Amino acid sequence: MNLILLNSNDHWIDAQRVRLSDRRAEHIRKVLRSQQGDTLRLGMLGGQLGTGRIEAIDAQAVLITVQLVDPPPARHRFDLVLALPRPKMLRRILRAVAEFGVGSLHLVQTARVDKSYWQSPLLADAKVDEALRMGLERSRDTIIPQVHRHRLFRPFIEDRLPAICQGRPCWIAHQDADVGLSAVAGQPAVVMIGPEGGFVPFELTLAEQMGAQKVHLGGRILSVDTAVATVLAQTL
User: Fold this and answer.
1) Which of 61, 134, 62, 154 is nearest to 93 (CA)?
2) Which CATH number fits domain 78-233: 3.30.470.20, 1.10.10.10, 3.40.1280.10, 2.40.160.20?
3) Do domains 4-70 and 78-233 have the same CATH topology?
4) Residues 11-24 pLDDT 10s
5) Domain limits of the chain?
6) pLDDT at 173
């Protein structure tokens, strides 16, 4: 945890002082080993970054005086459309999306996605929020990515994708593409990443009909979580 992430539902004594008594307080005591008078890195969820001074600390709670004056980091240039990954991958992908500062993530059903994945408890709002916040805490960010779920591929591509792209290029990752993403990564865009085994021909054709253009991620076949990291690392 490289940032203590605050929110409006915390126990605020007044506009500048907050009392923490949950896992964040435990982290401050046991991991950071902070003491009264020490300074912490803080951020307000959805708002600014800054610092806080510990006014009091004991086994029950930490009282902090907060000063938030800095803007959050810029958003990543890419938004993602991602075939819903296997549940065991989902949590780390969500954390990575938050760490890279992605604005929007669209999870979609594709032909090679098992429909049972949508029943995973890791897709519950609370679990998604928890994973995203962990990514923010690690990367010192405060802006949580927006996660959208789309259970029907064709209506998503035909009805939603053009509005999501909004004049930006839309790249679809495909091993046989002639152009690499690294060659076109310098501008804001939407990048589509398929499931293990990739998009089926019908899905590729439909996406291309709606304006998507194929790009490759290199010469190797990548797992979904590695592909996500590869795509987002293109613009660092």
Assistant:
1) 134
2) 3.40.1280.10
3) no
4) 999 999 999 999 99
5) 4-70, 78-233
6) 96
CA 132 to CA 86: how far, in whole Å? 17
The pLDDT, as a whole number, for residue 236 is 64
C-beta neighbour count of 134 within 10 angstroms: 18
Any idea what the Cα angle at residue 142 is, between residues 83 and 124, rounded to 5°? 40
Say which CATH superfamily domain 4-70 falls into.
Answer: Hypothetical PUA domain-like; domain 1 (2.40.240.20)
How far apart (Å, rounded) are the C-alpha atoms in residues 160 and 110? 15
236: nearest Cα among 185, 191, 161: 185
Q: What is the pLDDT of residue 93?
A: 97
Radius of gyration of the chain (CA): 20
Residue with tokens 């999306």: 97
Residue 121 DSSP one-character state:
G
Residue 235 has pLDDT above 90, yes or no: no
